[in-house]
Amino acid sequence: MSPLSEEAKAKITQSVADGFDEQIAYTQELIRIGGQRGHETDVMDWVFKQYNNRGWNPIRIEMDEGELSQHIGAGRFSETHSRVPIIIGTHKPKGEAKGKSLILNGHLDVVPLGPADMWKADPYSGLIEGDRLYGRGAGDMRSGAAANVWALDALRRIGLQPASEIILQAVVEEESTGNGTLMAHLKGYKADAALIPEPMQEQLVRANVGVLWFQVEVRGRPVHVREMSTGTNAIDASMKVIGALREMEEEWDQRYSSQQYFQDEKHPLNLNVAIVKAGDWASSVPAWCQVDCRIAIVPGVSAQSAADEIEKKVADFAANDPYLSQNPPKIRWNGFFSEGYVLEPGSEAENVLRRAHQQAAGEELTTQTSTAYIDARVHSLYDKIPAMVYGPIAGDIHGFDEWVSIESVKRVTTAMALFIAEWCGVEEM
Amino acid sequence: MSPLSEEAKAKITQSVADGFDEQIAYTQELIRIGGQRGHETDVMDWVFKQYNNRGWNPIRIEMDEGELSQHIGAGRFSETHSRVPIIIGTHKPKGEAKGKSLILNGHLDVVPLGPADMWKADPYSGLIEGDRLYGRGAGDMRSGAAANVWALDALRRIGLQPASEIILQAVVEEESTGNGTLMAHLKGYKADAALIPEPMQEQLVRANVGVLWFQVEVRGRPVHVREMSTGTNAIDASMKVIGALREMEEEWDQRYSSQQYFQDEKHPLNLNVAIVKAGDWASSVPAWCQVDCRIAIVPGVSAQSAADEIEKKVADFAANDPYLSQNPPKIRWNGFFSEGYVLEPGSEAENVLRRAHQQAAGEELTTQTSTAYIDARVHSLYDKIPAMVYGPIAGDIHGFDEWVSIESVKRVTTAMALFIAEWCGVEEM
């Protein structure tokens, strides 16, 4: 592998620019198709067709709950788990590989919208204003999933294709369990490196937390509000349990405050108290309360040990509470159950990406610590390959008026095309 | 009006006993028909038929939102407000009234079940075990609604009927707005006294709180959990608002601690934090949270002045909070908006009920202060008549395994029949 010639770099850069309007239209179409958790069939069918049109021989792989549940890093199934198959496309070089192989991974699942009236435009409209493309998934990460395709299209436009194998992974469940990408791993797909264009502000992720999802449920004896003192309010009781977990969160943040790559993060292990459902009648003391939480762990801590600690914390707290000791809270693991990872510096893949970014963006590639889940942990921990997460500038991820910077998508797509050309090598089509 | 003869008392008592198996079967049928808020058509149709069979010329009265919303004591409409008409039946004496007229009021609406698996039997089965009849509404108050009918049936069984007008009010919305009984008031139905057999442990309600329902909603800017510090968790923000309201609750309990009839109550004005709905994704910082609350006020305090104080408390608290001042909580009044009342002691109606209860139960009638809403406030405040709430022993009202004591229902029905005979007088059919 040798650095690209100035001429090659210029041609690739121009080719990305030449196709960019179409790339943005493709991204808008992805946003418009929508598809909430479990309802990604339409968007995945569309992606399948795109892969097929490009000769990547896509196949669908079903979510295999039995196989997944045997794996230490699998997210826990719940009734909301998507059953939509993931898609694997494969580009094969003409003959023997002349470069390194690569996984290009992107997730097509998106998070909910929240109250639609808090969006300034239809969240599925793909509205463009200035440099911003708006919509659910605009940043996280349909623009990245599109860039995976259009980086290769940029090579094709100038008559080139990668001279090594490219595995395109279009997955779901990245926002909730990570089981889509894990399913690809379980089927044996592997390469020399992986690249995931998540919206990382054009930075490379150096280290990433693991994430666990769980639900705390308190149930008790409900009574008429006039007898309030004889029953106990399950909402209050649940909030006390959450208080204990917040103590634990602080304790973890202290415990791991000198963890490599996490020293500069104020609260890397955020406990997010995210969803509450409780009670059904204003004049009844609520007898049940479900609180969905998400917490993070630093790399090197196993999900199981964290889960054990959470369960112990809740059990110990409940044992000392007069009401909760009689009505012990239940913990249900209902999503992510993942470990974090570190991208070891100095890999050849990273060096190639650094050159590509420098070329595309005109500045040095910097790194960040990610305090949110990313599927790269599958490639890093289980495929044991350099798993690079690098993608465009975006904002209001998971919020209202989510957007991605259009110019940033262009820079990132250019960097990706340059990276592929150098890492995999190119050959005439 | 003169006390009943010993012979009359004995005959009426025996007649209640003779019909009691049928009365319980009728009550079980009422429980089995079920009917949650807004879905009371079947049970009300059944009651209509029962009234009709007895010659009470029942009529249906629609909920008139326009008319109701003009009234100071109307509960606030929401999309869950029942549109099922109330039923008014009327018994007319043969000729001119020889005694006093009476309203017999009972509500057929019930509160939700909660998780069905926390009931020991189907909540609509009408299960009997020993002295207990179980089911949603068993106590509150289908057994009472049945007693209204069967107290009159007991007279009929021995060839008697009230010698004055009886207005039977079968209503809905007692559990949420009080608009059913208020609708009867607005249509001009009135009598010399009212009796409501709510499950009051065979006591008479001397004083009763007013009740207000409201929803606090906080909405903010949601962000990905990795940016948690830049957004604010709407659940946490809402709980802070609730904390401020709990301070106010304490303050009210202090302020009214020497209020007549409320001195012995520890927390008469309970703020019930009853329903929470917040967030939709475990890895998104929740951007909205709705908390439904119920609070009580002592008699003499208007609902409007209490509402004003609540709104001011929340606004003042929000003004001093960095986040809430930018995202002011909204308060939505979505149910009860009612004043409390006092049953002035010494009325002739009360004296007659005292004699009837003594006869039926073998002990003095005692009184209680009710810290839950009752429709009698309509008769007391707006009809300006003695409104007596007196009914059977029951338990787990609004809870799981709600029950009513069968023997207590018999005593109460006997007392009611004796009361009617003395208050209204009787005549041969």
Describe this structure in words.
- The structure is a homodimer of 429-residue chains.
- The mean pLDDT of chain A is 95.
- With 429 residues, chain A is of the alpha+beta class.
- Chain A has a 6-stranded mixed β-sheet with strand order 1-2-7-3-8-16, with helices on both faces. Chain A has a 4-stranded antiparallel β-sheet with strand order 4-5-18-17. Chain A has a 4-stranded antiparallel β-sheet with strand order 11-12-10-13.
- Helix content of chain A is 36%, strand content 21%.
- Chain A has 10 helices and 19 strands.
Which structural class do you get from the secondary structure elements of chain A? alpha+beta
Low-pLDDT stretches of chain A are: none
How is the largest sheet of chain A built, in terms of strand order? 1-2-7-3-8-16
What general outline of chain A do the C-alpha atoms trace? Answer: elongated
Oligomer state of the chains in this structure: homodimer
**Structure annotation, total helices of chain A:** 10
Which chains share the greatest interface? A-B, 60 and 60 residues
By CATH's scheme, which homologous superfamily of the largest domain in chain A applies? Zn peptidases
Average of pLDDT of chain A: 95
Order of helices and strands of chain A: HHEHEEEEHEEHEEEHEEHEEHEHEEEHE
| Number of strand segments of chain A | 19
